[in-house]
Amino acid sequence: MLPDLVSLGLVGVGPWGRNIVRTIDALPDVQLAAVASRNRETSTLVEAECQIVADWRELMAIEDLDGIVIATPPATHVEIMHSAIEARLPVFVEKPFTLDVQEARDLLEHAQARKVFALVDHIHLFNPAFQAVRDQIPDMGRITVIDGLAGNAGPYRNDVSVLWDWGAHDVAMCLDVLDEIPVSVRACQVMRESVDSHVAEIVEIELSFSSGCDASLRVGNGMREKVRSFVMHCDSGTLEYDDCADLKAVIVDKAGQRQPIDYGGETPLACAIDAFVTAVRQRHSQLTSLELAVHVTEVLARAETSLKMSGQAA
């Protein structure tokens, strides 16, 4: 019999962690049972019955937790994930889940050995608009070209580069829709300048696949405004996902006629956490999401190598 209530523990209550708190609170039959945070405001953000601990390690010993949600800086993810998997607690973790290829592979092996479910939150994969666009692919023929554009004027982060911060999303979408690993990865710096003591960057990532598809992904925190588009040029037309547009999902035929695609109104984060909760309830041990995240890590590491080699293929 499936449990009626799923109890989750959360590590980290920064800006994104607070979004997670609000999202969990709004989901039926899910409770935030415990939070690991040193933030003095934490008690004002969670329900009175939510247990607050200072050290995330204490979460692993709390009885009746059904899963762990990790919303901390990327450098901390590996240790927390490893401990949760060791405790056989399913894991929901923000991207990038690690910046190191070997760590990524080791975590996958650990999860496989312990038969523990893990979901990496490549948030756009859970966006109803992106899912609606992806559902049209079988009717559009082969994807020949992908154009991605993503970024904003900031944020300026010290813990992760724009390649890993913004590029993880677009690479994940490419691997998801094509279901293959690129045979060639190139990356070059398009722009780099100082902005109020911070560094703004734009990076171009070029991926080539054995299917014949080429992807060009421009990402960074040096944009004039927020942009997020992912366009797939196919044999029978074009599929457009634009998270910043009024019409977020559009199909364009060969004659140039644009047709909106219907999609649900749930937030991507709510969809992602709901997918995690469903897997917890059904006691899934499938690791499709974690396997994809490992491949994303591998591609971004190759892109990072290409950047250091002035754009040579890696």
For this entry, give a set of tags.
Dihydrodipicolinate Reductase, domain 2; 8-stranded mixed sheet; 314 residues; 32% helix; Rossmann fold; 9 helices; 6-stranded parallel sheet; 14 strands; alpha/beta; 31% strand
3D architecture notes:
The protein is an alpha/beta fold and 314 residues long. It folds into 2 domains: 135 residues, NAD(P)-binding Rossmann-like Domain (Rossmann fold); 151 residues, Dihydrodipicolinate Reductase, domain 2, CATH 3.30.360. It is 32% helix and 31% strand. An 8-stranded mixed beta sheet has the order 8-9-10-7-11-12-13-14. A 6-stranded parallel beta sheet has the order 3-2-1-4-5-6, with helices on both faces. Helix 7 crosses helix 9. It is globular, with a radius of gyration of 20 Å.
Work out the number of β strands.
14
Order of the strands making up the biggest sheet: 8-9-10-7-11-12-13-14
Quote the distance from N terminus to C terminus: 49 Å
Overall mean pLDDT stands at 96
Instruction: Output the CATH homologous superfamily of the largest domain.
Output: Dihydrodipicolinate Reductase, domain 2
The CATH topology of the largest domain comes to Dihydrodipicolinate Reductase, domain 2
Radius of gyration: 20 Å
* Estimated structural class: alpha/beta
The CATH class of the largest domain turns out to be Alpha Beta
Per the principal axes of the C-alpha atoms, what is the gross shape? globular
Largest sheet: 8 strands, mixed
Provide the number of structural domains: 2
Helix content: 25-40%
Unreliable segments of 5+ consecutive residues: none
Strand content: 25-35%
Which architecture of the largest domain does the CATH hierarchy give at level 2? 2-Layer Sandwich
Determine the number of helices (DSSP H or I, runs of at least 4 residues).
9
Task: Give the ordered list of helices and strands.
Answer: EHEHEEHEHEHEHHEEEEEEEHH
